[in-house]
Design goal:
Helix content is 67%, strand content 0%. With 273 residues, it is mostly helical. Helix 3 packs antiparallel against helix 4, helix 5 runs parallel beside helix 9 and helix 8 packs across helix 9.
Amino acid sequence: MFKARRSNSTLGSGFALLELIYHATVRSVRKTHGNAVIGLLLNMLQTVMLVLVFYFMLDILGMRGVAIRGDFLLYIMSGIFLYMTHTKTLTAVTMAEGSTSPMMKHGPMTTAVSIASAALGALYLQILSMVVVLYIYHAGFNPIEIENPIAAMGMVLLAWFSGVAMGLVFMALKPWAPDVVQVIQLIYIRANMFASGKMFVANMLPAFMLGMFDWNPLFHMIDQARGFTFINYNPHFSSVSYPLYVGLAFMVIGLMGEFYTRQYNSISWNAKR
């Protein structure tokens, strides 16, 4: 009587797994704040503040001339949204419960469910924040028009996917050297504030500067997203395939690393001396 019933069919097991991922995703979203609405508002406020900071910074520095012809605030948001999606997902997956977490004592719980719920929770928060911010700007300030919204949304999903892949790598390395991984993660996030290309477009960069940024998959995604957003911009020095291949490579490395770490990870590694 104290044993939960489990379906032996493949379809039943699949639905049970999806239900488990759903509840774990809700838990990961609610962890950000006790009140779900306040948690969403805080995430939106962080996005809006970053947009305003870059807006005034570019305006004060007189960099409007390097922007794409069109809505200047939409130009800034197209970079901020992808940057926030990538970094928030990376952080959420890195901080997901590992094999030594108390949550793993629950029978159905696995690290795969933990990773999936953290990634989906971050995607839910970012897409909801993005839609609300865009709607408020469109309805209350200036009507916007996105040339190819489906392809632009695809770049957001690609930024999320690459964040999951990078987060898996950091998650696999974290039990071995948590302090070092935390520093590397912080450096990567801070470096992307500039190296992601939010403040400029690839077509306007000189050749000697282009090599400083085209290694970054996020730079390609933001540049391609602006090409899909604005009708008068056609990116020539970025591609969709490069960040996709890099994301797939890091996904394989991260999954292999997480599997290897799970075999040797011990709760005593986190004990303080």
